[in-house]
Design brief:
Blueprint: H1 9-14, E1 26-33, E2 38-45, H2 48-54, E3 59-65, H3 74-97, E4 107-113, H4 124-131, E5 144-149, H5 154-157, H6 161-172, E6 176-185, E7 194-198, H7 217-220, E8 224-234, H8 235-241, H9 243-251, H10 257-265, H11 268-283, E9 287-288, H12 293-312
Parallel strand pairs: 4-5, 4-6, 6-8
Antiparallel strand pairs: 1-2, 2-3, 3-7, 7-8, 8-9
Length: 316
């Protein structure tokens, strides 16, 4: 099977036949926020069988899809921040219920902005951290202590992010880590319009085949919530998305109908294999990002940082 790389659990679910509800060990729940046109999807991977089928760790993956995020409507972005805040609070409550976090008045949260601030599609995490109001160094009596770090990438530091974070966690003793990162999507329509929140931690670079050390409760010793937005999509996936339209067009002309019939007889995996065989020798594993990605990342960095503020500092 030829895998079209994606960091989004909802896209993995969509790759299965039917409505995706037939996968053993995986549950799907969908609902909408009609007033704000936000589509919500919760994919829960319940056991090892579900994890193998999905190619992702056990846990809960919440996806917020909002096409209007592509616009600069501040009121709408504030509504999305509010929804993100609600889901963050729900996950924190569940972690406390499971005994994975201390259920006390004061909570120490470490926010981590993953990515390279010098590369716009990868700069979401650092930009979110730049917007956060950290308070660990202030003499305030808040119930939540928020600290933050942008650890950079291995090419800049020579160190794995997990190595850096282990040292920080050892010295500062946070109860919870929130990691923010740019993701890779399978579908171009989800770029900049989708936010994924998961309680499984994060696997830096996995969506683009650049596997780095995971940031999880097992590796770091504290719960890790991950917030991500897809900012890139593989060129082969874009071509794959348009293959049905291409085959229909080819089949409609007498000069090319044999080619169209040939493509239609191929399975989705065979189509993707053919696309990769044609593209990768010429371009390699090429990833594409929208031309307005700088503005998109800037807007979404405020949306996500505000969602974090609303979750932990509701009175502000």
């Amino acid at each position: 099977m030829f895998e079209i790389r994606t960091d989004l659990a909802v896209e993995e679910k969509e790759s299965f036949p039917g409505d995706g509800g037939e996968v053993t060990g995986v549950t799907l729940r969908e609902w909408s926020r009609a007033f704000s046109k936000i589509k919500m999807t919760e994919v829960a991977i319940l056991d090892e069988q579900g994890a193998r089928a999905m190619g992702k760790p056990k846990g809960t993956y919440i996806t917020m899809e909002a096409k209007a995020l592509a616009k600069g409507d501040e009121d709408y972005h504030r509504e999305v921040s509010g929804e993100l805040s609600s889901q963050l609070k729900r996950m924190v409550k569940e972690l406390k219920k499971q005994g994975k976090m201390p259920d006390r008045k004061e909570l120490h949260v470490l926010a981590v902005g993953l990515g390279n601030p010098s590369v716009t599609p990868d700069a979401l995490g650092p930009k979110v951290l730049g917007n956060l109001r950290v308070n660990r160094n202030m003499a305030e009596e808040d119930s939540v202590v928020l600290s933050g770090i942008v650890p950079g990438v291995m090419a800049q530091t020579g160190m794995e992010t997990a190595e850096i974070l282990k040292g920080i966690i050892h010295e500062t003793g946070p109860d919870l880590l929130i990691a923010v990162d740019a993701l890779a999507a399978r579908s171009i329509r989800r770029l900049g319009t989708t936010i994924q929140l998961t309680d499984t931690g994060i696997h830096p670079g996995s969506g683009v085949g650049n596997h780095r050390h995971s940031l999880t409760m097992d590796s770091l010793g504290i719960p890790v919530l991950a917030i991500g937005v897809p900012t890139v999509v593989g060129a082969a996936a874009i071509v794959h998305d348009t293959i049905s339209a291409l085959t229909g067009t080819l089949a409609s002309y007498s000069q090319t109908h044999e080619m169209g019939d040939f493509l239609e007889r191929l399975s989705p995996d065979e189509q993707y294999q053919l696309i990769c065989e044609l593209l990768e020798p010429e371009f390699g594993s090429l990833y594409v990002t929208p031309p307005d990605i700088d503005q998109t990342v800037k807007q979404l960095s405020f949306t996500i940082s505000e969602g974090i503020h609303m979750a932990f500092f509701p009175a502000r």
